[in-house]
Amino acid sequence: MSREWFSLARWWSIVLKEVLQLRRDRITLAMIVGIPLVQISLFGFAINNDPRHLPTAVIAADHSEITRSLIAGLQNSSYFEVTETLPDEAAGARALAQGRVQFVLNIPADFTVRLIRGERPAVLLEADATDPSATGNALSAASGILQGVIDKDFKGPLAALAGGAAPFEMRLHRLYNPEGITQYNIVPGLMGVILTLTLVLMTGLAITRERERGTMENLLATPVLPLEVMTGKILPYIVIGLIQTTIIMLAAHFMFRVPFVGSVLALYLAALLFIAASLTVGITLSSLAGNQLQAMQMTMFYFLPNILLSGFMFPFRGMPQWAQVLGSVLPLTHFNRLVRGIMLKGNGWVELWPDVWPILLFTVLVMGVALRFYRRTLD
Amino acid sequence: MKAAAAIDVRELSKRFGDKLVVDRVSLQVQRGEIFGFLGPNGSGKTTSIRMMCGLLTPDGGEGHCLGYDIRREAAQIKRQVGYMTQRFSYWEDLSIRENLDFVARLYQLPRRREAVDRALEDLGLASRARQLTGTLSGGWKQRLALAACMLHEPQLLLLDEPTAGVDPSARRDFWEELHRLAARGISVLVSTHYMDEAERCHKLAYIAYGRLLVQGRGEEVIASQKLSTWRLEGEDLVNLAQRLERTPGVAQVIAFGAALHVSSHDAGLMDTLRVLPGVRRVETIATGLEDVFVYLMSHADDNFRQGAP
């Protein structure tokens, strides 16, 4: 049996050829540089499981030295940031449902009077506990903060109240997910993640495959219109998306026992909207990609920030401002809020709208890009 | 609309980046004519064909295809033209029937099932209709492609190297089919590299480096180059050929089996050839298409360089 020995010269020629090819493949180059950079910046800076400066609304029916110092104490802890003052509980409930604030601090009208009388009045701190990791640390910090306020403020005539049992009570309400079950947050979030991955990838591949195999030229030579090709290729994936939605919904209900408070129809409508957004991304990527491999790489490039910045894996409000801005552009961020809002909070149209229009806008803009780049002829 | 020429394009140009791929090509194909489009690889044949059927927008020039403007009426052209791409471009993961059916749907044929059945019958593939297209041999793929682009009964066929990689007997069948179609009044523009195929065309055009060098009937193309050709027999043909190439007045020397074909613009060269050492026999022969095309190909380069600034 004859044996071929390893030839350094041959080996080196392969190396050179690979380098040459790589140098011409700008997408791979961008991915080689881009992925580590993206990962480092996301994991290193953006991901924060101890989110602070969480938006908090205050319903203060009582204005006194003590309530002011209570609010100041919460602010100083850096966990809470008072972003608005609301007139009543209904407004507070709406702010929580829309996800505008993470907490609502409710101070009753006769709080100071009852406090001085020693009746141990209660303040109510309501939390949107959909994502337990976003609120957990802030909630456990809350009682310590209040103790600090007491130690500092209850001097002189009030010193008697400071000793012994706390002079007032803080009631915590974990709304939507009282037991802090992580699955309640993760499983609905998975819906958007899976839809993103499969739909963007599949449409991307489906269209680049035509180009790669030369069949696109054949299609373009027939009377069929580009828009027909695009939309016709999309339709099966819309159905696939709806099937996936159903599977995840059933799994959420039967396997993870995630409560479903809202309307199934609303969820399907939200899913359709999100599917549309993902498909337009897929088409756009496919009109930019030269072949299937590039389409796959681009999908991953799109998928990564979606996973990390959308609030799926990590609390959205734990990210720095720039990451939140980036995240707000991505449809998955809003779809996650829609799904959680519908399933866990039972939100209706008014509460959902703030997360519907960003997806609509995104879809329209990306569609514009797709139509701009779609090759009508072969030029 | 009058019975316009099947193809009538003037001064078509196309640029990719800063490379001029097609340079002011004008050609006319009459109805019912088989028009051969010849030229080396990369000479701009495919690009020209794509412009004629509206797949590419020309950068310069204008023209009509079946009476429709190639710039503005691409949609009408597509409905009445059958275009067969150079590379097999049907879906290999679809069966034969599925492919035909898909194409029939794209053209919205009124009696789709019948049309597909008839096509399968004509192809002789009725029994294999469910076979995946990817498993067909090259010759069958080519027949399927022709059947598919004939499905909507086009008035004009644009065939881009349809017989590349097809065996001789399948090629012969294919050309017989083309002549049957032409007899029915269908016009055919076919690009090819094969001389025997060129000889079966009613008219020919030769393109090189994006420029159309000559067009007309076979005899006209041959006559246009004003070449005289002789067949030489002798000893040590390789050396003889080299010597001949250096002989003044010789335009080209091509080896043909046990003989050499020598062409020249000087009809009186025969006397020179006869007395060359090593030459046993010289006879005057008719200049063939192949002689002319080889001549055109080797001189196109020079012309092109001279023409360039």
From TrEMBL, chain A:
It comes from Solimonas aquatica. InterPro entries: ABC-2_transporter_component, ABC2_TM, ABC2_TM_bact-type. Its main location: membrane. Pfam families: ABC2_membrane_3. GO terms for molecular function: ABC-type transporter activity. Keywords: Cell membrane, Membrane, Transmembrane, Transmembrane helix, Transport. GO terms for cellular component: plasma membrane. Belongs to the ABC-2 integral membrane protein family. It is a multi-pass membrane protein. It is found in: Cell membrane. The chain crosses the membrane at residues 27-47, 186-207, 234-256, 268-288, 300-316, 356-374. The keyword Lipid biosynthesis does not apply. This is ABC-2 type transport system permease protein. Residues 148-377 form the ABC transmembrane type-2 domain.
Automatic annotation (TrEMBL), chain B:
Keywords: ATP-binding, Nucleotide-binding. Pfam families: ABC_tran. It comes from the Bacteria. InterPro entries: AAA+_ATPase, ABC_transporter-like_ATP-bd, ABC_transporter-like_CS, P-loop_NTPase. One of its GO terms (molecular function) is ATP hydrolysis activity. Residues 7-234 form the ABC transporter domain. This is ABC-2 type transport system ATP-binding protein.
